[in-house]
Every structure is written in C-alpha cells, then in structure tokens.
Amino acid sequence: MVNSPQILSALKQKIRDRTAVIGVVGLGYVGLPFAVEKAKVGFKVLGIEQNPEKAARVNRADNYISDVKDDDLKQVVSKGYLEATSNFERVGEMDAIVICVPTPLTKNLTPNLSYIESVTQELARKLRPGQLVSLESTTYPGTTDDVMRPVLEQISGLQQGSDFFLAHSPERVDPGNQRYTTKNTNKVVGASDPHSLEVATLFYQQTIDHVVQVSSAKAAELVKVFENTFRAVNIALANELALLCDRLDLNVWEVLDAANTKPFGIMPFYPGPGVGGHCIPLDPHYLEWKAKEYNFETHFIALAGEVNRKMPEFVREKVWRALNRIGKAPSKSQVLVMGAAYKKDIADWRESPAISIMELLLQDGVNLTYHDPFVPEIQVKGHNLVSVELTEEAIAAVDLVVIATDHSKIDYLSLIDKAQAVLDTRGATRHLSCNQEKVTLL
User: Fold this and answer.
1) Which of 198, 215, 242, 345 sits in a 20 to 30 Å window from 319, CA-based?
2) Residues 243 and 273 sit within 8 Å (Cβ to Cβ)
3) Relative orientation angle of helices 4-17 and 194-205, to the nearest 10 degrees
C-alpha cells in the first residue's frame, strides 16, 4: 500500500517533468483552449467531450473555437499530445482531471448542476489514488466541497487530501480577447486541504504565468461569481443611466465618455441592449440563490438582473419610436438587425440580447432580417434565419437598421450613408463624422 506522502510526491514529480497525463472534461470555449495550452508544453492530454462530433473534430484537428489557433491545434494533435474521446473509459490513465462543463440555470433562475453531478459520478467510479480533480465550471460557493467531494469519496472509497486531491480553479476566459489568454490571465486556485492546494497550484503553474492561491475551494468559487456580479451590477448602473437620460433628453454616451475622463475613482462601463453570454446573465443568480440559504437578500444582484433584463424591451420601444418618425407601423416595416452574437467579434450567441430583440420584433409582426459575419444562421422562436449579405441594396431596402452587436468588421460610415434610419444600441457610431440625423442612439 502506497502511503499518502508518496502519493503526493509521485504526482508532483509527474507534473514537474510533464509525464502526467491530463484529462479535460468538456472541450468547449474553456476546455479546448486549456487542453491545447497543456499539450503545447508537452503534456499528454486526453479530452472527454460528450458530443461525438466535436470529439471527432478535435481528433481531425478541425478547430471550432475561435480562441484556439488552427496551427496550434494541428500541431498538438499531429504530435500525439492531444486526443479526444466521448466516454470515460480512460479516466484511469489520467493524473490530473480538469472539469469544464456548463452550469446553466433553470427557468426559475436556480442552479442546474446536472452536468457537474453526472461527471463527478463517472469520475468517482474510476478514481484511483494519486489523481487530482479540479473543477473550473462557474458555480455557487460550496459546490466542490459539498456536492463533489462526498460523491468522489463515497463511490471510490478514497479520501481527499491523502488518496486523491480536489480543488476549484474558476475559468476566466474572455472570448475574443486578443490581449488576455488562458496563459497570461491570472489563475485563482483554492482547495480545502493543504495537499490539494499544493498540487493544484503546481499543476496550473506549468502553463499559466501567475497563480493566486486562496484558502478554500469555497473562496475560489465566490471569487468567480463576484467577478461577474461586479460587471453585472455596473452594467446595470450604466443601463439605468441610459433609461434616465432617455427621459431627460440627454445623450448617455456623451455623459459617460465625459465622466470616464476622470483619472481616478471611476471605471468605464457602458449601456447596451442587454447582457448575454455564458457568465453575466447567469452567474450572479448562483450567488443570489446561495445567499437565500443563509436568509440573506442580495438586493444589488436582484436589482441589477431586473434592470438588465428590461433592456431588450427598451430597445423595442426605441424601434417603435424610430419607425414612427418615418411614418411606419412595426407590422408594416422592414428591419435589419446588425449582429446576433452577444458581444463583438465572436460567434457565440448564447443568451444574446440581440436574439431577445429579434423575438420581440417578430412578435410585433416586423419583417425581420439580420446580418452577422460570425453567425451564419440562427433560430428565433421557431424561425430559421440566415444572415443576409450586407449589400447596398439590402441596407437601402429596409426602413430601419438596428445595431445590436458592434462587430469591428462593419463599415458603419457606409451603413449610415445607405440606410434610411439607424438605431445604435452599442454606441458604435457615436464618434463618426456622418449624417447623425439618421442615427438614434440608445
């Protein structure tokens, strides 16, 4: 029987000399970039992806994540450093296992941990001494210790901190960010026993420039949800200011641009048509839900969510007003929505406010088209929509263009020149020298 110090020492040595086999569960926008980074420095990486088509694409080096360079993926796959499977049969080969699965919300805005629970049970059946398990999925404080640990210990018969090691290290991926990548974004790591924290820190230090330790997995979990709650609350403040400026007949962009010239005591946040993506619309509700367990009301979080969810309706109202100025009823108008993605220059349209706006306009009977250079087709309330080519004729044929996502590829000067009217919900046109009489800002 191998004793605990030997188990820990052996795993640390494997990590240092990079003979450790790394498992990554979930090869999406978090998992695949992480897997590629580990493979680039010489680790053997086995990816587990429940979607067999995605697993096959990885094995063909057929890239589907924009934050991964095609050449990097081809190189690590061709050298045998990265491969993927759609089952858990090879868990025993892995020395460190990183979990990057979705953590959505239910319709009632409560946490849905079904993916984490399912993966934990699969791992527990094959867990062996000397393995590290690290959860990167965003979740409420207590998930790693209270949900995962009991399952891993009971099914495997092993003990955390002596037989196996368990940590939480929240992902900090910002899709489309050209400056901060997996490698150079500071990495927070927390674990509830010193051995797990030690080995998890060493593991992440192999490919990430700076690792920040916190005292527990629960603290690491709270770090992540606070980061996104901070953004949600401040975006809501900017959105509420936009609603107020609309009543005051003031330009919210002018006010914010001027306020942000102050060299201290302020941080730029801007309004928009709503919040989207995998983090800001979801993560604060994890914290809000957990707080209720302690009879604590998170008023700021609840209010921020309420304000942000109102914004698509406000855009709809602005569309009505813009159409009214040119004598068009919504049900007899043609509207072109610019952008379907939740943020500029990416292809991800999960929780996108642009989709919510399209749904509302379709309910109003608007003849709707959209253009997005990154999203070729979408489904909106049973409607299969295909991105139209952005020709002069397509722009001139509609009554109103709504800029819902401010992609950098768009020639906004030309767009304004050819359009009859433009509603800009992102402030993309506010600094342009053009015919601003055509443009309505949020």
Assistant:
1) 345
2) no
3) 10
- Residue 98 pairs in a beta bridge with 24, 134
What is the C-alpha radius of gyration for the chain, rounded to an integer number of angstroms? 24
3-state SS, residue 2: coil
Instruction: Select from 368, 375, 372 the least CA-distant residue to 338.
Output: 372
Q: Domain 4-215 is classified in which CATH homologous superfamily?
A: NAD(P)-binding Rossmann-like Domain (3.40.50.720)
> Which H or E run contains 307?
helix 299-325
HSE, CB side, 13 Å, CA atoms: give it for residue 157. Answer: 3
The mean pLDDT of 112-125, rounded to a whole number, is 96
Question: How far lies 247's CA from each of 237, 240, 251, 252, in Å?
Answer: 16, 11, 10, 11
User: Phi and psi (nearest 5°) for 325?
Assistant: -65, -25
Using CA of residue 84, residue 90, residue 93, residue 98, what is the dihedral sign?
positive
Report phi then psi at 12, rounded to 5: -60, -40
- Helical packing angle, 31-40 and 70-78, nearest 10°: 60
- Here the tokens at position 430 are 């506010």
**φ and ψ of 309, to 5 deg:** -70, -20
The pLDDT value given to residue 23? 98
Nearest to 206 by CA among 179, 169, 178, 175: 169
Q: What are the tokens at 263?
A: 């060299």
Show me where the domains of the chain are located: 4-215, 231-441
CATH of domain 231-441: 3.40.50.720
Active site residues: 279
